[in-house]
Every structure is written in C-alpha cells, then in structure tokens.
UniProtKB/TrEMBL annotation:
Gene3D superfamilies: Diaminopimelate Epimerase, Chain A, domain 1. This is FldA protein. PANTHER family: ACONITATE ISOMERASE-RELATED (PTHR43709), ISOMERASE YBHH-RELATED (PTHR43709:SF3). Keywords: Isomerase. NCBIfam families: OMA_tautomer.
Amino acid sequence: MTPGLEEVPCLLMRGGTSKGAYFLADDLPGRPAPRDELLLRIMGSPDERQIDGLGGAHPLTSKVAVVSPSTDPRADVDYLFLQVAVERPEVSARQNCGNLLAGVGPFAVERGLVPAEEPETSVRIRMVNTGDYATATFPTPGGRVRYTGNAEISGVPGTAAPVVIEFPPSAHPLLPTGSVRDVIDGVPVTCVDNGMPTVLVAAGSLEVTGYETPRELEADVALADRLRAIRLAAGRLMGLGDVADTTVPKPTLLAPPRSGGAVTTRTFIPVRCHTSIGVLGAASVAAGLRIEGSVGAEIAVLDSGSDRIRIEHPTGFLDIESSLGRTADGLPSARRTAVVRTARKIFDGTVFPRSAETAPMSPHPLGDQR
C-alpha cells in the first residue's frame, strides 16, 4: 500500500473492554513514520472529540492492532499494538494491549491468516511490542468465528463468545527492580511486570481511599502530581529510562476488596484513570498480589486453594488465573497466567482517512521504531 492511498481495509472490533481498528500490516505503509501519520488521520487525532475519524475520544477507544503472518515458529501471527493519542499527534508502540489481544485471533481467521478448525480454533500470537507470546482459543463452528455466547465481562454490556487467552511465562523478570518493595518519595511501591510494567501503590499511602470514581481521581491535582513523580522514578528503577513521554509503567492504586474479590484497583493509563483494568495490567497486579512482602500482599484477600484471583475495578471485576514459581536464583516468577475475555466484530470494510492536506499537525510518535 502507498501512503497516498485514501482508502484502507479495516475491521473495527471491540476487544475486551477496549475498541480499536484492526489492520493487516500489508494494508499499511511499511515504515513507522508514514504509517503513524496515516493512522492519526484515520483515527481523527489530534482532536479531543476525534470527530473526523474512528477514534472514540478516549484512550480506550483510540487503539490500533496491526496483524501479519509470523516468521517465528512459535507463533501463527504477529500483533503490533499502537496507542493513538487523542489530543496529541502521537502514536506509541512502547506498550502492549491485552484487551485488543482478544480480537487478534478472530481477526486472523477473518482475514485468512489462520484456518478455522472445528469446533474451536487456537491462534498462537507473538506480541511484537514486548516479544511475549499468547494463545487465544475461541469458538469457530462450521469454520466461522462465532461472536455470540454466554461469557460476560465487566465493563461490556451483554454477553459474547468466550476468548480464552493463555500467557506462557515471560522472559522478563517479574520484579524489574530486583526488589519486592521500593520506596519512592516516601511511598512504598512494588514494581512488577507480568506482561505490563505496573507500579502497585496502596491507595491509603497517597491519602485517597481507592474507591473514588475515575473522574474524582482525575480531578485530584495533588494526586496527579504525586503519581507522576512516582511513575517517573519507577520507570528509571525498572530499567525503562525516561518515561515522561510514554504510557508505561502504569500506576495502580490498591485497596481492600468491597465485593467479594481479592482487591480493589484504580489504574492510571498513565494520566486518565481506567474505567476498568487492562488484561495485561491485571496479570501484573495478580502476580504482584501473590509475592510475599509486596505492597499488594498485605491488602489482598486471596484464596490459598485456587489460582483464580478476582480483581475489582470501577465497573466490576476481572477474573484471572495466576500462579507463581521460583527462578534458579530463588526470585518469584510467573508460572501460569490465563484470562477469559470476549471480542466482537463491529464492522468490516473500508476506512477513508482525513485528507493529509487538512490534517492539523505532523506526528511526533512516542514509539522508538523509527
């Protein structure tokens, strides 16, 4: 495809509690700069309403999945996640998205990258952003993806077919700083990475309850300043460098559960407060709760006889299977992580980008894949 092409095949899908545009890599420019410039015009950024594009005026609805056949023998397809900023001309490839991941397998079957099997299909996925892997299994009766079903996830109305996503242990250390606890600006934190770099903080240590609504937390200027300072320092401790212009690590406030779960969460992405919680963020939270001596371990209510952890968030809960092992050095490591998500095809067709001549600004992408 050439950058000047003014129509692009696109499949718009809800994946988990996010919504995004899914593309075949061959349908986009091969080089990051023209690709990102095109995606800004497709999504309608920069504009707080994204009125002239596909974006939904929120980070959770301004996402892109780029999928291609994988040359890795451990995977069927490659999945590159791109976060398109809403109000800024920026496209970031520096984090992953476990919600859009739920739609990658169905998309691969829809586009003929993976043949459908009976009665269900498993698609092995390499997540290009991090180099991690996942396997998504979903129903394909009669050789077609079935989107209807009885699976229900918080934050999404109605029910849909289940997409079971299993993550093998990551090659990244579960504790990137090498410590179960660190202290930043006098606040105890646990920095954990089980697919998403995350900073666990007890809500009470920041003088909030952790039960506030996302809007209330976003309006707290003092909290925002403290979270920003903690995130910047944690990024350096976790080996991520200067994270001022990136979306990771993600601070997550923890409070005791209120509705029978293990813990209550409020996650920042990184400025806006998530209306639920991301899949990979939840995977990191769940693993962090199981680490003895962590910030989360003293707050969470865990069932010692089960791998399942119910993580409460502003619009409900997310159940995740999580168990830990030990490295040869005796450090905690993720052993098994699995989650049930749902996905739905919203439309499949052609998107017409905003004209390059009328685009307000040139992009300054956050990603480092120039």
